[in-house]
What does this fold into?
Amino acid sequence: MAIVASRLERGGGVARGCLVLWVELGNDFVLFDPLAVPDELRERATAVVLTAPYHERDARRLGLPVHTPPADTWQDWVEKFGIDPDRVRGMESEDLAWLRAGGGEGHFHGPGTWPFGIDAYAGREDNDLILWLPSIGAIVTGDSLSDFGDGLDIWIGDRKHVTRDDVAQRLRPLLDLPVELVLPAHGEPTDRAALEHVLS
It folds into this structure.
């Protein structure tokens, strides 16, 4: 088993403080939410796994099979962000548009069992997932659990359809798993104690 994680510190924007993560799972070398993948790891990679469709980052450029939750629909935007339906009706998300159009090998999954021995749990929404990797006792948390400088916490962002308490309730089943390592997309790797603190 190999876990490689490094922090990407580009100036400003969403890349700031991103955890760049690669995990060896059986015979596969999986890149999670890939961004600025070093050449030596890109050569070993066999697949990309996204915790959310808007974490596609460098996935397209890598030319690997991509396993991802589906992109938002216009109806999702109305529910999640309180957008006027008349402004977005019929529109499509740009997230993963290239993959949906056949520009790569895409596999779309919701919460449940995924390839590579991964179990996906809904995070703050059904397409922002927490991925349980039982073979290494770790969860990859996407944006739902992030550390933007004040320790691991639930991150709602500008969502209107859910509260912090709603998300904590939804994530409490993670405490029934033998989680040892928490790998957030934003922030430093941490441990079970941090997870327990956030969900208490």
The helical segments are 39-44, 59-62, 74-81, 85-88, 97-100, 164-171, 192-199.
